[in-house]
Recover the amino acids of this structure.
């Protein structure tokens, strides 16, 4: 039954999103035992349709998290818009734990006052109530902020709905050439903006910790170089254009340094560059592939991919503040003969990676303290995992009917959904930090 | 004949309409056409979309392997291809793409022999330069594949350098998995994508 609901919900989302989204989301696996919640349509006094259906955006957010199972609108027997008009017995009969009611009030200046209340059905009391002023292009963002408040109030964990994802799309231009685009969108795939495009390969987008800039690798000019681009001003700066590979940029948590891969010494090695002084410090010294460095949240260690042991595995090396290594790199992964492209959870407790199992490439998670290793996905070409900034979800790239698509999985592996582009391929998702 | 190039999008559109059986038929037709076509020699580099040129290359390779012995003999006799060897479909130099096993950057003994012929050619023609492009199949992580593609290109470069080719004549670049020649998602395609390509200029 739950699965059916999820499916209907997925279809609903698809229909809604036709209007403006380039990415569409489909819930592929709902979660048994997710908390039932009702997001009642917000009251609207205007003659025309409301500028946004806030309740639908919020319900979709909560559904995607895997923690909630929103009640379909058609199952609601009443649509109150404020706490005083809620008959809790109605909602208990529907076996709903929480109800969200609200209204949108148009203001003289063209903005909207948005009021909402989150109610506990069984205790019969209000848990949260806010009034937010917003205006037209920002209404979806306001809805995501409401989702964040609901999520935090009930689960105790900060919500990550009001965030962005960056990704690469590949389509064909009119001449039939491949067109690579770096795009960002809201975390639900809406409001896509193209940041950069090129007919040459484009890869490895990485967010600055302040969320204002993206680093990426572009083959513009015939060979790979690393650039940093400001999202707002579009101003671009070349960071690294040495002979050979310039790849895998990763910002340090304080935003002052960047780890990257250079092969100017003869084979791929990890370096750290100070973004202010442009001083490059070599981290690895190995006649093997060393690449895909990522930082621990405290900025005191890097986790990277190396095949120094004969197959690609993840290693960890400690760094001091001057980017000098402390001790030798230590191997982290021992399950199977392919573990690469680490993404570290924001609390530093887990590492997601690309893991090969019987010829299939899947997303796996290693718990650093316990060594517990869990494979989260089931397809065969999964890559580029990236944690949500609250650490509850992982977005990654996969394929569906020969298309590159994005997918999300909850860290416990229970909730799954896919984001697909209407044509062409989507790949290399990177989840933004909190705003 | 001309060979229709099915890209990812075309193929899936057709699969949706026609169903699974048709997909395999398409792949089969594609593979058969690769094997059966006759082409004129290819002068320019092979772009990632140009499956026809790929087929031409393979045809040339086959011919080159068959007649490598005759050619060498002909060249010793002051044969007519001196200076234009790169355009001669019967020369060992016509083989410009070398394939690799999964996760591997090891060249077969046959390929090492052909690369030795390229080394002799480059040594004899100091104005000719070559770019060695390393590629991988689509599986696994992208940046690791960039590194793996470079390792393949470097393996070929090393063979050239140890045979006396000045390093100024050789450049390497890796595209990792970004520029497949075969667009399928199975071992038949992956095998063709794990490769190093010779791109000559200045001849």
């Amino acid at each position: 039954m739950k699965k059916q609901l999820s499916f209907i919900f997925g279809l609903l989302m698809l229909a809604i999103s036709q209007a403006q989204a380039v990415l569409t989301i489909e819930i592929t696996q709902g979660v048994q035992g997710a908390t039932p919640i009702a997001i009642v349509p917000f009251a609207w006094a205007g003659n025309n349709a409301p500028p946004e259906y806030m309740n639908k955006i919020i319900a979709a957010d909560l559904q995607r998290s895997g923690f909630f199972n929103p009640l379909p609108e058609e199952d609601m027997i009443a649509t109150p818009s404020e706490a005083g008009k809620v008959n809790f017995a109605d909602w208990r009969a529907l076996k709903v734990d929480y109800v969200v009611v609200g209204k949108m009030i148009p203001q003289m200046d063209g903005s909207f006052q948005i009021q909402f209340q989150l109610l506990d059905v069984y205790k019969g009391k209000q848990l949260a109530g806010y009034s937010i002023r917003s205006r037209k292009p920002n209404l979806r963002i306001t809805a995501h902020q409401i989702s964040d408040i609901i999520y935090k109030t009930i689960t105790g964990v900060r919500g990550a709905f009001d965030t962005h994802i960056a990704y690469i799309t590949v389509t064909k231009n009119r001449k039939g050439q491949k067109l690579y685009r770096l795009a960002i969108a809201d975390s639900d795939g809406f409001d896509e903006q193209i940041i950069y495009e090129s007919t040459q390969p484009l890869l490895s987008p990485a967010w600055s910790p302040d969320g204002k800039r993206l680093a990426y690798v572009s083959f513009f000019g015939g060979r790979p170089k690393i650039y940093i681009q400001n999202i707002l001003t579009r101003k671009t700066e070349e960071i690294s254009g040495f002979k050979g590979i310039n790849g895998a940029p990763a910002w340090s948590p304080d935003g002052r340094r960047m780890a990257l891969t250079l092969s100017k010494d003869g084979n791929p090695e990890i370096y750290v560059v100070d973004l202010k002084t442009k001083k490059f410090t070599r981290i690895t010294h190995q006649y093997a592939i060393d690449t895909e460095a990522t930082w621990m949240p405290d900025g005191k260690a890097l986790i990277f991919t190396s095949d120094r042991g004969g197959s690609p595995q993840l290693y960890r090396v400690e760094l001091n503040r001057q980017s000098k290594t402390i001790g030798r790199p230590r191997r982290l992964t021992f399950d199977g003969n392919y573990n690469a492209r680490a993404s570290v959870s924001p609390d530093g407790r887990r590492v997601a990676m690309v893991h090969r199992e019987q010829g299939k490439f899947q997303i796996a998670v290693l718990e650093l303290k316990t060594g517990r290793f869990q494979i989260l996905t089931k397809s065969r070409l999964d890559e580029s995992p990236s944690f949500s900034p609250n650490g509850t979800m992982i977005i990654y790239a996969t394929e569906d009917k020969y298309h590159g698509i994005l997918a999300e999985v909850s860290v416990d592996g229970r909730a799954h959904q896919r984001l697909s582009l209407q044509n062409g391929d989507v790949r290399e998702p990177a989840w933004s930090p909190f705003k | 004949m001309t060979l229709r190039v099915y890209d990812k999008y075309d193929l899936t559109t057709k699969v949706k309409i026609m169903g699974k059986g048709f997909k395999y038929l398409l792949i089969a037709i594609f593979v058969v056409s690769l094997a059966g076509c006759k082409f004129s020699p290819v002068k320019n580099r092979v772009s990632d979309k140009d499956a026809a040129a790929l087929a031409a290359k393979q045809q040339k390779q086959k011919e080159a392997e068959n007649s490598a012995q005759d050619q060498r003999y002909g060249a010793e006799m002051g044969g007519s291809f001196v200076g234009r060897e790169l355009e001669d479909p019967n020369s060992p130099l016509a083989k410009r793409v070398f394939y690799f096993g999964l996760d591997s950057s090891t060249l077969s003994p046959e390929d090492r022999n052909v690369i030795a012929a390229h080394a002799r050619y480059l040594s004899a023609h100091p104005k000719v330069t070559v770019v060695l492009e390393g590629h991988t199949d689509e599986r696994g992580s992208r940046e690791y594949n960039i590194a793996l593609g470079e390792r393949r290109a470097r393996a070929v470069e090393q063979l050239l350098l140890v045979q006396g080719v000045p390093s100024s004549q050789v450049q390497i670049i890796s595209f990792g998995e970004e520029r497949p020649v075969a667009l399928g998602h199975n071992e038949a395609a992956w095998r063709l994508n794990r490769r190093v390509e010779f791109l000559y200029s200045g001849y």
